[in-house]
Amino acid sequence: MKKHLLPLLGLCLVLLSGCLGESTFFANNYTDYVTCRQGKLVGDLNGYTFTVTEDLSETSAWREEGGRFLIRCDILDRALAIRLRKVLPVTVTQPLPLPEAIPDYDDPVEILDSRISGGYLNLYMQYYKDPASNYAHRFLPYFSKGENGVLHLYLFHDGNRENPAYVEASKLVTAEWVYSFPVEELLPGGVHSGITVHRFKLKTGEDGKISVIQEP
Question: What is the pLDDT of residues 83-109, one digit of tens each?
Fold first, then answer.
């Protein structure tokens, strides 16, 4: 099986800065990475605290104290009461150093959004899954450090070949996964609570590597 790093499609850095404007109040389909603190959701954007007054998410996972989530919601008023529409649990982890023996996993994954916020590099992705299979998909993140402060991140997907190359597309569904990598541990001194987010750029090479470049 040919080894390759997973493609990164349409990757862009979303700089979250400034204050919520007048039009932001009463906003629909607002998204943010949040952490649960004493029953409220504290967003990465300037630490705004949201109060859930309507829950349409069909899950109580967001109530887990200290849990990190990617949410979609409607902001209802100036007090930041929200109607919660969707909640995705976030896996907070630290990539391991890239081993000499590269993992032989090449199932596809599409990274739909990436941003640095709250001191994390966040990746939101979708992948194929066979709903009739009980196979537990695995994502293996690694990193290596290059010259001039460049950090290379590698993501391998062990999906048991549950993708259109091996399985009829009509038998597959798309699933979602979200990662948050603590940037301070990867690039010490670089990101502190989002203050210096603008110093970082993301790019992808032809080999699929995600490069995080810290500018001088």
Answer: 999 999 999 999 899 899 888 888 888
Q: Kindly give, in sequence order, each residue whose CB lies less than 8 Å from that of residue 153, ignoring residues fewer than 6 positions away.
A: 95, 121, 141, 142, 143, 181, 209, 210, 211, 212
Task: Beginning with the edge strand found earlier in the chain, give each strand of the sheet holding 96-97 in spatial order.
Answer: 96-97, 138-145, 150-158, 210-214, 200-204
Amino acid letter for position 110: E
Q: What domains appear along the chain, each with residue ranges and CATH number?
A: 24-89 (2.40.50), 92-214 (2.60.40)
CA distance 209 to 189: 23
Beta bridge partners of 180: 92, 122
CA distances from 32 to 15, 16, 118, 153, 206 (A): 12, 10, 10, 23, 30
**Token pair 């009980």 in the structure block, residue:** 134
116-to-21, 166, 213 alpha-carbon distances in Å: 21, 35, 12
Angle at 178 between CA 65 and CA 156, to 5 degrees: 135
Tens-digit pLDDT profile for residues 26-60: 788 899 999 999 999 999 987 889 999 999 998 99
pTM score, two decimals?
0.75
Give which of 11, 20, 13 is closest to 115, Cα–Cα.
Answer: 13
